[in-house]
Amino acid sequence: MPTSGLSLTNCRLLLATLVALSSLLVCAGAQSVPRSELDLQRELFVVAVDEARRGNLAEARAARQGLQDYALVPYLDLELFKAEIHTLSHEYASREMTRNKGTAVGSLMKQAWRAKLARNQEWEAFLKATKGRAPRGLQCDFVRALRATGEDARADRETESLWLTGHSLPDSCDDVLAEWLSRLGVDEVEQMHRRRAELAIGSGQSGLALYLLRKVAGTETERELLRQPESLHELGDKLEVTPFNRQLVILTLKRLAARDHEASNPLWHQLARRFQFTEAENHTLRDTFARQIIADGAPYARDWLNANDQNFEDPYLTEWRVRLALKDGDWRAAQHFIQALPAETHSDAQWQYWSARADIELRQAMTEETRASLEYLAQSRGYYSFLAADMLGKDYQMGERRTVNRELMPAIERLPAVQRARELYWHGLVRNADAEWRRALRKLNRDEQVAASQLALEWGWPNAAVMTAIKAKEWDDLELRFPLAFADTFKENAKARDIDLNWAYAIARQESAFAEHARSRVGARGVMQLMPGTARTISRELGRPSPKVQELHNPIVNIEMGSYYLGRLLKDFGGNHILATAAYNAGPERIRRVLARQKEPLPADIWIENLPYGETREYIKSVLAFSVVYGLKLKGCKTPSVQAGCNAKGEARYAYIEPQPPEAAPGASGG
Fold it and tell me: Cβ(431)–Cβ(3) under 8 Å?
């Protein structure tokens, strides 16, 4: 958000200027707001919000008079609403919420008002404000309100519904849960703890299950299994066969598979018979063991897969049989396993490519049929299509097509929600801008959404452009789907760190689609999805203070650090972009472990296909494909990808990933 050092005197001066400008515009019959007036309104809005947050409400209201036509007046009203929320009458609050009904501001006012009523324990008003339904995030306050107003029976039902979850609940709910449990008999309390423990086990929450079972008599054996999964080897035959224990055994076997799949594999088959595992349960366990066996590079992996999927009933296992055959160079087996995949997957680009590859390797020549298959595949845009083009020595086909109807753009730009979104983004309030934008899109048809995507692109809001194009299924408009976002920042940092600009763009496009406000489930932040710990390490290496977490949402800071990290990974992995890309996603240590287990050099496309981390495997493919798109958009680059962006043909056939001993610096040739 732009900062402003404007004093109240300057605020009033701005107000007077705005009034004068407005008068001139009316006299001139102007139809649009001049840029200069918009600049003043933006400055005045910043001042007004600051005054409201400081409690200077008279000054904030005075400033509001000069903002009557500004798109973000509702957000100033929200700040005023929150600033005086403790003195507002119920009638006034209701009028304000009704006036803003159906808008993002209305929802924020409603949240703030309900939270205030809960804090003040105004329970009757709280229930009225929630219309008798538990609002998200305030479920426990809803129960408190029911209790306080004498609706104990409903409070009990609501609390039981809250209780029956396989995940932890907020500490703020402790008193609500304790009061409800105190109303139950001893046997009921035990039953409720057991029921929730079963849900926790089903959700894989072993710690929560252990905590809950401490309240259930006679569960010492179950608790021992949760504390020490290895004890299943001794206790498995002693456990009573019950639905609860069956779920506990399945969870324990999953945990054992990660620790020692070789020792626990026979135990699984032994207990499967005793506990009568269903076909679905055995299927889940089989996939769990397969993932661990493959990830560890177990020498018996092929035999295990063959033994556990004799009739090709599990597509996941069959796919891995293909991959391992490719790794072995057993092209005949690879063809056989591809044919064993479900019929509906045969047309997938992935298996078309590998089927053609296998046929060429077996015949040591390209038949007309195989050539036709590759030519068909190479007509599309994507990782396997680019690989097919490399094999044929053909140019990549982008299939780009623009369908934007610019005549729709002015009307969309005038929509209040769109105007609010644009101004919020300008002020750096990206999360609020995103919420307004998504609300606006709900009312637009496909053609209007494409036009809105173009608007966002022209405003310099790349994430909105990308995500709106995706929402509209506008797959072939590469201007919208692959924007040259934050161009100066990316160019400067790519040059400073000696990395390919198209590669940096591809990483950012895959990581966040250029969303400054992005935050992953594991805490990665910003455009290039940096973990705070990684950012601290980078800062130390650069000799700078560690950034605050919020600073990672600044694109300039984030792109600089992300580019530095890419450059370091590229150097650490011998200049190989594939390995550096894999390390950026999975972490360098995991990729080093893969290289250390590798026995011989592998063609890069086969190495990627055999990477045991599914998310990283697909991540690399996307980044490589995106690198080609950006390489062609930027018109000139080094070759960052296995399929050799910028049309350096054939490298996919000759690039190899070399094995590395654990103590060696990782690297590869031909990257």
Answer: no
* Distance of alpha carbon 534 from the chain centroid: 18
586 φψ region: left (φ > 0), alpha (ψ -120 to 50), beta (else): alpha
Cα–chain-centroid distance for residue 64?
38
What was the pLDDT predicted at 495? Answer: 97
Q: What are phi and psi of 500, to 5 degrees?
A: -65, 130
* Residue 81 amino acid letter: F
Angstrom distance (rounded) from CA 562 to CA 49: 33
User: Is 115 exposed, middle or buried (CB count within 10 Å of its CB: 0-12, 13-18, 19+)?
Assistant: middle
For the chain, residues with pLDDT lower than 50 are 1-9, 12-31, 33-34, 637-654, 665-671
| 487/251 Cα distance (integer angstroms) | 49
Identify the DSSP state of 602.
Answer: E
Closest CA to 297 of 632, 633, 612: 612
Three-state DSSP class for residue 203: coil
Residue pLDDT, tens place only, 507-516: 999 999 999 9
Length of the chain: 671
**H or E element, residue 656:** strand 656-657
* pLDDT value for 21: 42
For residue 85, give the nearest of 30, 136, 125, 43 by alpha carbon: 125
Q: pLDDT at position 666, please?
A: 44
